[in-house]
Fold this sequence. Notes:
Number of domains: 2
Number of helices: 11
Strand order of the largest sheet: 1-7-6-5-2-3-4
Largest sheet: 7 strands, mixed
CATH topology of the largest domain: Endonuclease, Chain A
Helix content: 40-55%
Amino acid sequence: MDWTSSTPYSRDLGDELRHLRQSCTDHTGAGLAEVLGWDPSKISTIEQGKVRATESDLVQYLTACGQNLGFISEFISRYRRAFDVCFAQSADQTRTLLLAERMASSITVYSPTNVPDLLQTASYAEQSLLSSGASPDEIQSTVDSILERQKTLYAHNAPLPTFYLTEKALDPRTHDRNVLRGQVTHLLRMARVVRLIPTGGKFPLVDDCTLIEYGNMPTVVFTGTHVAKIFVQEKPAVARCRSLFQKLDRTSVSPEQSIALLIDLHDTLGSGQ
């Protein structure tokens, strides 16, 4: 069984099923398969999000996990979109993106106006969210989510990341200087994966864009706003995203030049100029 029909959402919901089995029963995957009269591989492929379970399969599985009719109905409703190759969910949903990033082999990010989430310090994230009008609860929830996602970069099997950002994201006119200096310090620690587009350089006027690639699963394009998170794995969208990053590779300065620019900015912020 391959992963060609798998999507970030199918893997998320499959993982949710696995957590239900582990938390609500004493069954291993093989044990639950025996109870249901299924082949053990069927449990495995459903929990990994490789294949679409039928509604009858889900009713049997969730009933065996002790779930009530209300939960079963709600889960089936969500599951109907599990294998959509273009999928949107509300901005406060975080599991799908977190799991998508954790399973990736490489992540390439472009953020034209802000430091990418995966590189933001907590203070920079809080200030950016505050300026957008987010409530204190929204700020805390979003910052917690960002910090949890950042753990992916330090895992033993971490994806290979590349981040393209413009100097505009580090403009001292839009952020407190101390906050910004702390952010630049963090970027210097991560400088090996940072590519800067200097002020005056030509950069595409598009929204934030992330290309998430896997060794054995379809590539995913992700973009997010304050309203929604959007996942697309249609080939034309992936091709356009790859083309964008090829342009950014030509437009941005080298990692060594990026480091030099960051050091200059760090010194400028420290001197109060």
